[in-house]
């Protein structure tokens, strides 16, 4: 979105000195802050880029029913999502067990509310309005980062020009935003926190399949069966 002002291969790119949450603020916090939230939002460069954990069903109409607003949803395999969530939450709840997180998920609930409604809300919206809602899978991004960066650029109305393709700009974006690059930056190692969480807590492993190191085969089969039931008929699966 900002590669015109900040070339991804440039030494002074904001992502090299700022945590990603400083570059892409939480929409939830801006909307909730009646004091300075509106002013902070107005100060963001247009088109504004924000992130959220809100369910699609509770997004403001100015977003969900606005043809000029693009929504990108990134979905991860629920089994890996639970492992990531557990490690992340233990930053502030060190006594939390993985079993606690797993059992809540089997009941259909995570710390952001109903799990399957969350995923299916955006999945269904992407099928109904593919021009305004893009559903991306984390694992597919890992397998083909450059291809998915091109897809994302096209979706947000910023496709790579022939000159940019020749110059390898898509790969520059991938290098800049790679997990290892982000994790290795000094700003993301410091104990600077956003809310309760230190910057380092946002970067653990970033891999697919780590769930196998935390779940027994019985736990995996149980969650797979729940997913099969909850997602049946939607066209979405994690098999």
Automatic annotation (TrEMBL):
Domain Sulfotransferase: 13-235
UniProt GO MF annotations: sulfotransferase activity
EC number of the protein: 2.8.2.-
Keywords: Transferase
Superkingdom of origin organism: Eukaryota
Coiled coil: none
Family per similarity comment: Belongs to the sulfotransferase 1 family.
Protein's recorded name: Sulfotransferase
């Amino acid at each position: 979105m900002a590669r015109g002002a900040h070339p991804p291969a440039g030494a002074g790119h904001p992502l090299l000195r700022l945590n990603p949450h400083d570059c892409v603020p939480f929409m939830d916090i801006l909307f909730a802050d009646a004091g300075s939230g509106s002013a902070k939002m107005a100060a963001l460069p247009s088109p504004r880029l924000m992130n959220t954990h809100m369910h699609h069903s509770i997004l403001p109409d100015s977003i969900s029913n606005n043809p000029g607003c693009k929504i990108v949803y990134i979905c991860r395999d629920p089994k890996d999502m639970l492992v990531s969530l557990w490690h992340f939450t233990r930053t502030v709840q060190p006594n939390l067990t993985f079993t606690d997180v797993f059992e809540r998920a089997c009941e259909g609930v995570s710390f952001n509310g109903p799990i399957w409604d969350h995923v299916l809300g955006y999945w269904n919206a992407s099928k109904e309005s593919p021009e305004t809602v893009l559903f991306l899978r984390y694992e597919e991004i890992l397998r083909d980062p450059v291809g998915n960066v091109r897809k994302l650029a096209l979706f947000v109305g910023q496709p790579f020009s022939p000159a940019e393709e020749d110059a390898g700009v898509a790969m520059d974006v991938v290098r800049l935003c790679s997990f290892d690059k982000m994790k290795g930056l000094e700003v993301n190692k410091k104990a600077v926190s956003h809310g309760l969480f230190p910057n380092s807590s946002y970067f653990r492993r970033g891999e697919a399949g780590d769930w196998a190191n935390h779940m027994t085969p019985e736990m995996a089969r149980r969650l797979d069966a729940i997913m099969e039931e909850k997602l049946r008929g939607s066209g979405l699966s994690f098999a």
